[in-house]
Write a structure and sequence with these properties.
Layout (H helix, E strand, L loop, with lengths): L1 E10 L44 H15 L6 H7 L1 H13 L4 E6 L4 E10 L14
Antiparallel strand pairs: 1-3, 2-3
C-alpha cells in the first residue's frame, strides 16, 4: 500500500453539485470538486495528486500543513479547538495505519470550505482502482 494526498478549497455551496462529485457523471474527471467518496479521488487525473508521502508520518505532516495553512480562516475557531489538531492526527494515524482513508473537512470564513484527504492506494479497502500515478 502507498498513499496519495488531495485537497480542495472553494465555496462550500459548490459541494451541492453532487452529480459532478460522482464518478458516473460526465463532468466528474474535469471537475475540481472533491468526490463524494474519499476513495474516488483515485479516479481523478494524476495532476490532482498533491503529494505521495512515503510513510504515514509523512502523510500526517501533509495534513498538518493543510490544517495550519487555513487555521487563521476557520469559520468557528472555538468549535474546531474543541476537536483540535492533535486529536485529528491521532485518529488519522490510526486509520491510515489500518489502511483506511482519511478525509478532513472544515468550514472557513466567507462560506468557504477545505477538504484534505489521504487515500490508501494499491490496494484501497473500498474500491479496486488502478493507481492514478501509474496510469
Amino acid at each position: 500500500m502507498h498513499l496519495h494526498c488531495y485537497s480542495w478549497t472553494g465555496p462550500g455551496d459548490d459541494q451541492r453539485q453532487e452529480g459532478e462529485r460522482r464518478p458516473l457523471h460526465p463532468a466528474f474527471l474535469a471537475s475540481a470538486l472533491p468526490p463524494m467518496r474519499t476513495c474516488d479521488w483515485l479516479l481523478k487525473p494524476r495532476t490532482r495528486i498533491e503529494s505521495s508521502p512515503a510513510t504515514v508520518a509523512d502523510a500526517l505532516g501533509w495534513l498538518t500543513g493543510r490544517y495550519q495553512a487555513v487555521q487563521s480562516s476557520f469559520h468557528l475557531p472555538e468549535d474546531e479547538a474543541s476537536i483540535g489538531l492533535d486529536f485529528r492526527l491521532k485518529l488519522a494515524q490510526e486509520a491510515l495505519t489500518g489502511g483506511v482513508d482519511v478525509q478532513w473537512g472544515i468550514w472557513l470564513r466567507a462560506g468557504r470550505f477545505i477538504t484534505a484527504g489521504v487515500v490508501c492506494c494499491s490496494p484501497n479497502r473500498h474500491a479496486a482502482y488502478a493507481c492514478p500515478a501509474r496510469r
